[in-house]
Amino acid sequence: MTDVASGIPLVSLRGARFLFDPGALCLEFLTTGGPGIGARYEALHRPADLADWLARSRLRLDPAQVDVDQTDLADGRRMRDALWRLVCARTGTRPPADTPSDFDATPADLDALNEAAAHAPLAPRLAPDGTRHWALPATGRQVIASIARDAVELLSGPYADRIRECGAHNCYLVFVDTSRPGRRRWCSMERCGNRHKVRSLRARRDADPAD
Question: For a disulfide at 65, which of 101, 136, 178, 187, Cβ 3.0-4.6 Å?
């Protein structure tokens, strides 16, 4: 799983801003849209949209240094939608969709992921301060390959059984629980975790005759 990040900034449909750290680059990519309900959140309409997203992702790439064309955009969206279905097959969850088969994983989804991963990824480089960065300029194909390889690593690695959907009834964000106890429930404590705490507190107060 590529790099460690404090979270990618997201905005809910109601306009609330929060940080979401799914624990893996490939799961960050799922926040750009997808099949079913994901179409409401579609963020990749133009090649520039993918380049701009890279600056917010854990890759922290300069959009001006990444050449994304229309083919890269189409390939990225195809791989992302395939990854959604593969992740749902792993977790056993199924986000809402007008067509139930939108989240049915097929051999074609596995092919889409593997084809994307077969291309050359971003090249790492060591900075003078000892930190790792990415060699730029880069192409959209390299970026998509890096995301796909991150997905292969996650789905085949030791954390594959820790990929989970947020525990909130109306949130379908997916994350990998990298915590030591393995008890993460929420996409973000700032958002769904806090809302759960507020509801629980209200329920306890309503149940207490002394209040």
Answer: 136
